[in-house]
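Researcher: Hi, I'm a grad student and pretty new to this. My advisor asked me to get structures for two proteins we've been looking at. I'm not sure of the right format, so I'll just paste the first sequence and hope you can take it from there.
Model: That works fine. Here's the first sequence with its structure tokens right after it:
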Amino acid sequence: MKVFKASLATCILILVLASMLFAVEIKGVRFAEQLPVESIELHLTGVAVLKWAMLFDVYAGAFYLPAGHNPAAWAADVAKRLELSYFREIAGQGFADASIKLLRESLAADDYAAIKERLFTFCALFRDVRPGDRYSITYRPGIGTELRLNDRILGAAPGADFATAYFGIWLGDQPISARFRDRLLDNGRD
């Protein structure tokens, strides 16, 4: 009986801790309030849902920065993470094509040329996604920008300049959606 009670108490503790870790929910998708990235604790700055043509939900996203870091200074050389949980099937080539097109259009020619080779290598990492799949893009200073699908590492690209450009797709001056960007950066909850 003691073993059963101890096991039950352990299960309850695990459930309580898990619910604390995944404290924010948007459109049925849960995101952690905090995430460890090696020895750095990242904190949620905001969540949002990206809509296509103002009609269809494409994905829910969450953005993380170190505690106390001003979200308006997201481009600084600090650890950061963007998580995107998909509601629809999307082909990996679609991610690659969209990333290249958006960056070619939004970056100055010299800036695009400086990251072009790394961008093509990074874009080759993308895989098809189904509803419920989650990409995470994590930048670690001195290491680079890492891409994971469902928490499985696919690869990385070096350089703070690459991170600033790539995260800029969602967070920059010409983002994929200004509403999505603003909600990620201002503690937004759709």
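Researcher: Oh nice, that was easy. Here's the second one.
Model: And its structure:
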Amino acid sequence: MPRVFTISVRVAHHELGVFGELRSSSCARLLQETAIRASSDAGYPEAWYLSQGTQWVVRRSRLDLPRAVVFGARLSISTWVADFRRVRSRREYEVRPEDGGTLVAAAHTDWVYVDLSTAKPSRVPEPMVAAFLAGDEPLSLPRSPLALPSPEGEARRRRRPVELRDLDGLGHVNNATALDTVEEAFFEWLADLGWSPEAMLAAGGHPRAVGHDVEYLAEARYLEDLQTTIWAIAGEAPVLDTGAETRRLSDDAVVARARTHWRWQANGDHAELPWPAELRHALLSG
């Protein structure tokens, strides 16, 4: 069995969004913190990576959020390494209430081991593989490509610069920020259609992202201008999917691509509701 590392956390108020639920990006940051602490527990703390001039960076992340999490919830977050390739590793995560019960989040991330002096992938040291897998033989799991159809209707575009709050300790945009970027673009689109957060609060329901699948393809640095294009993807109710692509305007490089699953749910008790028919039609027609 691989080395499983678990931490317990209490959801803080600042980690919630306007509807009183744990933000997708807040959950992603909790998972990232768990991975960092798991690495330290295996004998590879941050100081070790600094001494070697290396670091793990996220290249692909899948986050499923089947249930809303609210303020004060006590959660148990477990993580383990599922496989290794030459320069890459897949890490799994599960999040449950601390007292047991139903899964509230699950994720896996593909991390690439990078030489910071060259910004190129580097072979993972064999002792690290052994430490993370606790002696198990390394597996090599298949990776399916991100299924992201092109827009059928008119796509929406949102432009903004990289701000200081977006950056992490490596000086580039943290991977969790991509989730905020997608959700901000979607909610801005909804507001333009007459569904502002205030209107949703008054109407008794709102959309919640229940799944993100994100590819990270290029870096973005401080004050670079980014443009996010977002569009709706036709599918079966009650889920509505969006595709999103963020590019650097300086050279048109794709920074990130994402597919997000949305469900409409009641304010307060988070019960699943059907999407308002006129809104779903407006989104899918572009």
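Researcher: Is there anything I should tell my advisor about the second?
Model: You could mention this: The first strand starts at residue 5 and ends at 10.
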